[in-house]
Amino acid sequence: MSTRTLSAERAVDLVHDATTAPSVRNARPWRFRCLRGERTFEIRADSERALRHADPDARGLHIGCGAAVLNLRVAAAHAGWRPEARLLPDPRDPTLLVTVHLADPDGGESDLAALYPAVHRRHTGRLPYAGKPIPTSVRSALAYAARREGALLEFPGPGHLGRVPEPIEEAESRDRAGTRRIPGRESADFERAPRLALLSTLRDHPEDWLRAGQAMERVLLLATSEGLVGAPVARALGLNALQTASIAAALPFAFVMLFVCYGLLRGLRMEAQRQTVLEMPPIIQIRGASVPWQQWLKTIVTWPRREEVESFLRETVAPALREVAEEFRQAGLEATVAKDPQEISLTIAQQGAREFLYAVHAKGYSTPAFALPDTSRRRRSVESRRYFRADVRILEGPQHYDVMGYTKEQIIGDVLTQYDKHVRFLIQSG
Length: 430
Ligand SMILES: Cc1cc2nc3c(=O)[nH]c(=O)nc-3n(C[C@H](O)[C@H](O)[C@H](O)COP(=O)(O)O)c2cc1C
Hints:
With 430 residues, the protein is α+β, with helices and mostly antiparallel strands. It has 2 domains: 8-263, 3-Layer(aba) Sandwich (NADH Oxidase), CATH 3.40.109; 272-429, no CATH class.
């Protein structure tokens, strides 16, 4: 029997991950209770958050709770557990929708854990989508993800769509006031043929709605991992909206209609970011001195704390700048070193021309999720989630590289490289 316990901190993290799930009108209609000793979570419907008019038979509520359960399972698998979910485990208590027990791993379903990074990245897409078609292999993977949760995901072809204009058209308007442009409001061109997917289960009971919710979230997380954006559509919830459609005859019950597409804006933004990064010098640049590769590697894989960078500024950068300033002075130039805990700088006056500045400052960044060894650390404090770099700034602006870990000689080499460029600039600009 396992002795691994579920800490209170870990339990809070898991619920936090679970509750990033989508829900109709963001009602978040769930309540979580953790029985830590039994390593079990109970998920109940929160009746105060039920949407009695928009969701009278609580299909949407169950789907949202199912999505939260899938997130919980993904987060638990990522934390090294084997989540076992039981749907509607107590027939006398219909408000207890699901229990999730955290069992010991048995080498089984590891692909759930792989979806974890998408848990916090997934969002309902409401921006225009790119028209780029989704490759067959990706569609098949999405359909397989739905099947793993006991649901069917279909991408209706144009033939189908032609026969079911009404619900599709209604869904396509997606709260966007159709294609009309409203004076005074920002507008955007939406794609003409969104990639529509229908998610269905065999029967039409609360248990099936919970399954549909888990399947929907699994599809959305996988879609997010594939660079797609998804949007569930409430108006097509349940059989009613589709019952007149011929497509429904081919499907058991259609519960959720999803738009799954490549995001136009996100894609463009990512492309622009990639280009910028490609054009940037590498973060670790050692100039003016040869560097053992081990030092280089260490700088790439470590995520220093503020105190480490500040002590580096004090113990390595300050002596380097003082030493190089002394040499400049001996060459007849006016050189000054200024120092505060976060920044050390060297200024060289250039008689009637633009002065030279070389500053190194401790700058905080968010540590990427992949570099955080333990999810519990993520919640402790904002400070503990940050790492620091010793970034170089010259008069013209930040230089986007980090000198943390350089030796004194390497810092001096870097100063001289920048100074050399400055002098060339002064010569060229006359
Ligand atoms: C079953 C279901 C149906 C939904 N229907 C719609 C919809 O018709 N229109 C819409 O804009 N968002 C819809 N949403 C998305 C929610 O509004 C969204 O999940 C919520 O606002 C939280 O935002 P997030 O998904 O970006 O975390 C739906 C979500 C679910 C679970």
